[in-house]
Write a structure and sequence with these properties.
This protein is of the alpha/beta class and 339 residues long. Helices cover 50% and strands 11% of the residues. The protein has two domains: 174 residues, Rossmann fold; 143 residues, N-(1-d-carboxylethyl)-l-norvaline Dehydrogenase, domain 2 (Orthogonal Bundle). The longest helix has 23 residues.
Amino acid sequence: MKDSGLPEAFDTVSVLGAGAWGTALAQVAAAAGREVLIWAREPEVVESINSTHENEVFLPGIKLDPAVRATADLPDAARSQLILAVPPAQHMRAVLRAVRPSLSANQPLVLCAKGIERGSLALMTDILSEEIPAVAPAALSGPGFAKDVARGLPTATTIASPDPHLAQRIVATIGLPTFRPYVADDLIGAEIGGAIKNVIAIACGVAEGRKLGDGARAALITRGFAELTRLGLAMGAKAETLSGLCGLGDLVLTCTSLTSRNTSLGAALGEGRKLKDILAERRTVAEGMESAPAVVALAARRQVEMPICEAVEAIVSERMGIDEVIHTLLSRPFKVESE
């Protein structure tokens, strides 16, 4: 099946991971006319999607297209022509390793998680190349909240791949008037932007919870973008990618709304709540909390200064209290802005 003006679309799509974002992407693919299968670990999620057309656990209140089916059988999900991998970043390696025996040679796979693996400091594309080197890589990143995307509200995103034909086929497969993918060839830039914005969002949430004012949030976003850019360029990303949808665009969205799991986590911490109590109430993952130690370690390896990310890491690791972290940041020497 051909879409006018675009390469041939993939007819069948599987989504590995039935969290809010994976479910939203399954909804997008179904709206684009694809046959969609979503893989979930949780039997109750599979049952909910197949019986009520709703992911009552991770995306309640959103009726899904009847074309979206769910399965707990990973080999079954691997049979689709296009795979969207959407587990939490810290579980990406395990999911790719598990699905590897069921994939065909050169089967395209789109990485849709935003984070850096703790310990190895690997980007998601690094993990893919280590676990399934024959698979054609691509990454989906950019500003968008799962509920908005699932409801069909306008969203723009980035499909990054070194293979422009593959990127265009992915666009043809999931692109909609309300879900507009832009093509890029910079995998590193797309991944760095998505990972670091989550860490900066926690800082913005802390400022919100501490009622530090809009000026503080604007400063954190701006200086956070400087940190994101410094590390991205040090790792070989393109400046235009970092200033685009999957860098600056994603940073602005995430840092300015409590809809963000990372911003809301930071806000709860800023209000004085204990991290263990906040996490006990959630089934969803705040990727910035998981990635912060890896971001800080990666910055140290590259000799890149990232004081806001270091501050977030100190808070989520509970090495320092919030007031102490704020004092440390505000006591830093005055500098030239471009440094």
